Amino acid sequence: MYIIAGLGNPGREYLNTRHNxxxxxxxxxxxxxxxDVLELKHRAVxxxxxxxxxxxxxxxxxxxxxxxxxxxxxxxxYYKSDxxxxxxxxxxxxxxxxxxxxxxxxxxxxxHNGLKNIIAHLGHDGFIRVKMGVxxxxxxxxxxxxxxxRFSAPEREAMDRAAERAxxxxxxxxxxxxxxxxxxxxxxxx
Length: 190
Description:
alpha/beta, globular
């Protein structure tokens, strides 16, 4: 069973922030696939359904970003999913331009505390991820203030389009594999 975990922070004050783009992608995918993400289990809000012909759990960990691994580990253990081939994690990435997405089969946390915590709880970095570009932190800004900030109107439009592409990428990962999705979605979008 696939576990698709979008990273973010719970609470109204974090809605629509850069750090919560993982939650936004889960919401988009849930809407498209008619999956209700409402059940509180395994320290996450989850929904069960079918994506690209496969049973999936859509999850929004409620542990706050820096402890995302606690929820992801609980989901993997409960549903007995393969954390190398059936786990897809969606996160923000400041090293990618706003609206860019990048699919990876493995890799370091790249300074992202949510990914770092998942790697620590899994004991490896060999899980599939969809990185959502939120743009580089402006010079002189505090990183926390930047990732907990909101998008400008043009950035929000770009991120909404990116969330659509990310949902398509997730379907392709499930149907055809991560390599196919990397070939299709890792191109720079103008």
